Every structure is written in C-alpha cells, then in structure tokens.
Sequence to fold (88 residues):
Amino acid sequence: MSSEEKSLLERTYKMTEENNEILKSIRRNTRIGTAMRIFYWIVILGLSFGAYYFIQPYLETMTGLYNNVSGNVDSVKNVTSQITDLLK
Fold:
C-alpha cells in the first residue's frame, strides 16, 4: 500500500468516524424530542382533566340553574298562552 493510499484510507476513516458521531447525535436528539413531545401532551391532557375535575361542580350547578330557568320560562309561556286563550 502506497503512502497516498494510506493517507486516503486514514482520511476516509476519520470522516466515517465523524459521520458516525453526527448520526448518533441526530438519533439522540430525535429520541429526546419525541420523549419531550410525549411529556408535553401528557402534561396538557393532565391539566385539562384536572381543570375539568376542579370546575365540574360549578358546571353542574350552572347546568341545573339553566334547566331550572328554562323550565320556568316554559311555564310562563304556558301561563301567558292560557291567559290569552281566556281573554278571547
């Protein structure tokens, strides 16, 4: 093997090692990014369910109040229609 071939082989080896390190860092960054994305969504979903659990009694109270008011409005409509029928 001549000295030129040997230097070419050494340069190729060094570039291969450098490329290998770059590929390893890319793979590591991809794995870390995926883990962070999963953690992000777990936190978002956990906070959403936690907020719903915290707000649920208030929502149930408001829903009951709405149903009560809508029932009262319907009864007032019935009474007003009965009064108009009596006046005719």
